[in-house]
Amino acid sequence: MKGPVSSRAATLDTIAAVLPMERRDELAELLSDQDVETLRHLVNEGMGANTLRALTSDLAYLQAWSLASTGNALPWPAPEALLLKFVAHHLWDPERRLTDPLHGMPADVEDKLRLQGFLRANGPHAPDTVRRRLATWSTLTKWRGLEGAFASPALKSAIKLAVRASVRPRRRKSAKAVTGDVLAKLLSTCRTDSLRDLRDRALLMVAFASGGRRRSEIAGLRVEQLAPEEPIKVDGGSLPSLAIHLGRTKNSSAASDEIVYLTGRPVDALNAWLRASKIEGGSIFRSIDRWGNLSRRALDPKAVSDIVKQRAELAGLDPREFSAHGLRSGYLTEAANRGIPLPEAMEQSRHRSVQQASSYYNNAQRRSGRASRLLD
Q: 3-class SS at 220?
């Protein structure tokens, strides 16, 4: 007869497509029956795969932290005191820790989380990470039909004071934007007709030219999402055109079908890759082993960042300064540098927040504006 852990593991197998299944057994140990049932319900309701992975990761961390710090699984709803303990364990003052070893997360809790692989970095957590995990905790509480203390003045005040105490510079997802000149250097390393060079060239060009697509969108792109369009007429000829049906994205509703367009060289690069790889359906960008054999499975989203870093290193750039998100920020930065109106660029990038998208424009203008060149 199956035990509760085996039953949870079997249930997790049924939603393997959207969960980090390399940690299935660990999740089965950490999560409760109700947790697993909630995840299965969200899969059936059509929650986006990336959102569900993030939620599952946060839930697993919260359960691991609760077991390490209290010896018990997360209570539902969580008392205010436990929420305040979570803030105190994750947002603390590094300078005070030097004179007070008991300040912040206790050493035994930290050791348990490190041993399980949940804690890697030293020092306090990023405030955004703490807020996100609290938001996940709050959301799961509401899904259970319960009310938590997440809006309590004491918790809000604790977070505010803790953030002040644990001042740390905000880090960008990609230290440097992959603008047009940087992209040209990355593409210059894709010189041959090998499958790897053809794939990476097509991936970089499609990711950038389609508006700076997220790594999950590129990794999950399928042939069935492509639709040839009428060539674009230009002086003396025409350019190939292609529509990409993104379907549901991070910023759209389930019923939306976001569409972006490719024109010219990116279309040629994509077609060259599809011809060489003989891919006629399914995932477009796939892994290639050391012997040059093409996998049937789609690239992992992390592999998109790995490709950007590998190409940066081959181009003589510092790979630590670039990631897949640099293609997204680079697209908007390049659009700003070329004087493309913000609304037009947002149509391609599919940004919903004018404030977020315009920050790239503002930065580009500030760098080249008169105010930054008073000593010229």
A: coil
